[in-house]
Inverse folding.
């Protein structure tokens, strides 16, 4: 399963890695904070587990260390940002900060992004807005993983959508892929030698497979072998067309609005660059923000207190993340041995001493 490691030590280790790549002190700190905060929230698929992928992309030139994101189209309430293949966490952070600034001035800010990279946890950016007392929305496309209903090859990405809004005792935070799970979760299962517990993806024969290592290998190939199922699964009986439709909406908000690359065209050849979408909405547009937030808090508490199945507890989106955050901040973040090995190998290549962080 892995071991617990001190959050501050791991964050410092990650920062030193990005310092060594050539990022500025400030940018390295932003990247390290975003990546390790994801582990604090218990989203292990998108935290330090992703360092090996980022390392490959930096070395291949797919992530440009010296990239400067550029606003190429702008109004008082909107903007299109070209990431110029920069580190996704940096491009996304700038885009959401711009959306928040516009919302502070005009009530709403909408920023679409093209030519970026994997940005980690979608909810991290939505929560940037809710931390400012606003509604936050974040979405991204990705390499092609999702097989549309009745198709036999992937076309859309895992295309997650996140939504956050201020509430008590913590913000409401929904963050989910439009595939049954993200690729990162399959990678975590493969690293831990675990079998996939559900109908998450299909193999080269379009048959559901539960072999995590095989699925990781197939989905890392170019072109992809097999693919991932939309929320609702194969066909229409359990609503798979709904997950497919939600993935299409994310694709429209990201690649179409920004005029970036479609998920279908990424992941092989020379076409590179992921697209994102961010929105910040000032609650003052609808009345008193405190009253609106209180109404949300009361509703969520009513749901938590509904009669539950025997032995079960009702959770609201964000509850588990908030609990994980408190636990891991105090007791350390959980990292599997394969990921620690990957981090050590990256450090050795960059001539960074790392034993003091373990």
């Amino acid at each position: 399963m892995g071991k617990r490691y001190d959050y501050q030590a791991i964050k410092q280790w990650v920062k030193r890695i990005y310092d060594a790549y050539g990022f500025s002190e400030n940018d390295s700190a932003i990247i390290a904070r975003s990546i390790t905060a994801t582990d604090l929230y218990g989203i292990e698929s998108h935290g330090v587990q992703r360092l090996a992928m980022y390392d490959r992309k930096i070395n291949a030139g797919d992530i440009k260390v010296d990239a400067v994101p550029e606003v190429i189209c702008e109004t008082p309430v909107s903007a299109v940002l070209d990431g110029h293949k920069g580190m996704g966490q940096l491009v996304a952070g700038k885009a959401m900060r711009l959306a928040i600034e516009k919302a502070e001035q005009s009530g709403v800010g909408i920023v679409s992004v093209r030519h970026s990279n994997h940005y980690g946890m979608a909810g991290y950016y939505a929560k940037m807005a809710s931390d400012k007392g606003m509604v936050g929305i974040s979405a991204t496309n990705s390499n092609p993983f999702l097989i549309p209903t009745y198709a036999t090859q992937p076309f859309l990405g895992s295309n997650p959508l996140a939504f956050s809004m201020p509430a008590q005792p913590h913000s409401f935070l929904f963050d989910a892929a439009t595939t049954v799970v993200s690729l990162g979760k399959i990678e975590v299962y493969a690293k831990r030698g675990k079998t996939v517990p559900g109908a998450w993806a299909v193999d080269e024969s379009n048959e559901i497979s539960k072999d995590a290592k095989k699925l990781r290998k197939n989905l890392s190939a170019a072109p992809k072998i097999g693919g991932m199922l939309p929320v609702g699964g194969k066909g229409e009986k359990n609503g798979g067309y709904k997950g497919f439709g939600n993935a299409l909406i994310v694709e429209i908000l990201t690649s179409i609005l920004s005029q970036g690359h479609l998920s279908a065209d990424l992941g092989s050849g020379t076409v590179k660059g992921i697209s994102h979408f961010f929105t910040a909405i000032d609650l003052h547009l609808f009345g008193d923000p405190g009253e609106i937030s209180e109404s949300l808090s009361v509703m969520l508490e009513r749901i938590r207190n509904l009669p539950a199945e025997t032995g079960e507890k009702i959770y609201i989106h964000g509850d588990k993340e908030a609990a994980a955050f408190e636990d891991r901040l105090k007791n350390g973040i959980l990292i599997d041995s394969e990921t620690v090995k990957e981090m050590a190998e990256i450090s050795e290549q960059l001539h960074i001493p790392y034993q003091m962080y373990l």
